[in-house]
Design brief:
seven-stranded mixed beta sheet; binds guanosine-5'-diphosphate; binds magnesium ion; 8 helices; Spore Coat Polysaccharide Biosynthesis Protein SpsA, Chain A; alpha/beta; single chain
Length: 246
């Protein structure tokens, strides 16, 4: 049994999925994995099923019908994790933009250093993004500044999707009230955790653009974030957030 589960959402990641699973399972600490696959036409799910024979205890697969967006996939994964006994729940991409070795740093921040949520952050010390086109780096960097300005959230990398949550955070945040699906989903999760009084810690990481497969994010996802942040802030004036139990 492990106290930690790594959620990996996938849509057409046949080039990456096997390697990322093996990389997580070769870490010095034991992590379990839940792959949340949105019916990838390229057969990502079938690869995971084959590997489950090799890792029957530690590799889990949730198959969903059709591409429903990153946020929906994670919400389903969070609920699954809560119905099992995991104390630490991680978000990680399948494409090696997030280095699986950094799971250990994210875990340490929550397990040993008092954080309730830790974030693998690209912008906590300079800009640590490798091989993204300059336009995308600038967009992501200034998007984070914009989010900080509008929401008051004191996090440098607000759209980061490499995270660790203590179980209590996911139990307290009302998951059914989380509405966004793309980058805005990542912002909404951090903002809600902050409003509930949880301690958030950023851990510096280097984000490397994928070498295999293609990005699934689109302009619509970006648009959702720009307006979504304003909505999030506005709605927060009228919402009573559940508080962290001490
Ligand atoms: N289940 C699921 N996974 C998704 C969806 N969209 C993206 N992903 C996965 O989310 C992760 C990040 O997506 P990616 O395309 O690399 O985004 P980028 O790094 O921002 O360009 C990858 O593991 C994708 O396979 C979706 O709609 N459903
Ligand atoms: Mg990616």
């Amino acid at each position: 049994m492990s106290d930690s589960i790594v959620l990996i959402p996938t849509y057409n990641e046949e080039e990456n999925i096997e390697n990322i699973i093996r990389a997580v399972f070769s870490l010095p600490k034991e992590f379990h994995i839940l792959v949340i696959d949105d019916g990838s036409p390229d057969g990502t799910g079938a690869i995971v099923k084959r590997m489950q024979k090799e890792f029957p205890e530690s590799l889990h697969l949730m198959e969903r019908s059709g591409k429903q967006g990153l946020g929906r996939a994670y919400i389903a994964g969070f609920k699954w994790s809560l119905s099992h006994d995991y104390g630490y729940v991680f978000e990680m991409d399948a494409d090696f933009s997030h280095n699986p070795n950094d799971l250990l740093k994210l875990y340490a921040a929550c397990h040993d250093e008092g954080a309730d949520m830790s974030i693998g952050s690209r912008y906590v010390s300079g800009v640590n993004v490798v091989n993204w086109p300059m336009g995308r780096v600038l967009m992501s960097y200034f998007a984070s500044k914009y989010v900080r300005f509008v929401t008051g959230l004191r996090v440098a990398d607000t759209t980061a999707g490499f995270k660790c949550y203590k179980r209590e955070v996911l139990k307290t945040i009302e998951l059914d009230k989380i509405r966004f699906v793309g980058y805005a989903f990542q912002i909404e999760m951090k903002f809600t955790a902050y409003k509930c009084g949880f301690i958030i810690k950023e851990v510096p990481i280097i984000f490397i653009n994928r070498e295999l497969g293609t990005s699934k994010m689109s302009g619509g996802i970006f648009g959702e974030a720009v307006l979504g942040v304003l909505k999030l802030k506005w709605n927060s004036f009228f919402r009573k957030y559940p508080k962290k139990q001490v």
